[in-house]
Amino acid sequence: MNNTQKAVWALRIGVAGEFLGHGVFALQGKQDWINWFSNFGVSNPSTASTLLVLVGILDLLVALVVLFKPLKPVLLWAVFWGFWTALVRPIVGQPIWDFVERFANWAAPLALYYLLSNQPNN
């Protein structure tokens, strides 16, 4: 296994771990996240909880796809979603550093996307 292949696997595991963790938190109904929905016009806690479950399921699917068969459209979704979920922090009133701390949430799937784009048969 060459260094590029090792980097690809390290990124696949890292991105899958991030989305697995977020997915589990979402399925557990993390209260902070439910409350954040009100900042975007979803004031009913039951609706927010349902949406959070859907987000959790999607995050788990992303984790599985990235780990077992990383598809470029899924990686681009992971870039977008990782950036958005990091950006939500300052939008809901957390310090900008909560956004900065989460740069890897979108940069890791972006790096994986580019590494896979440069490999033959991808």
From TrEMBL:
Keywords: Membrane, Transmembrane, Transmembrane helix. The keyword Hydrolase does not apply. It is a multi-pass membrane protein. The keyword Iron-sulfur does not apply. One of its GO terms (cellular component) is membrane. It is found in: Membrane. The chain crosses the membrane at residues 7-27, 47-67, 74-92. Pfam families: DoxX. It comes from the Bacteria. This is DoxX family protein. It comes from Candidatus Zambryskibacteria bacterium RIFCSPLOWO2_01_FULL_45_21.
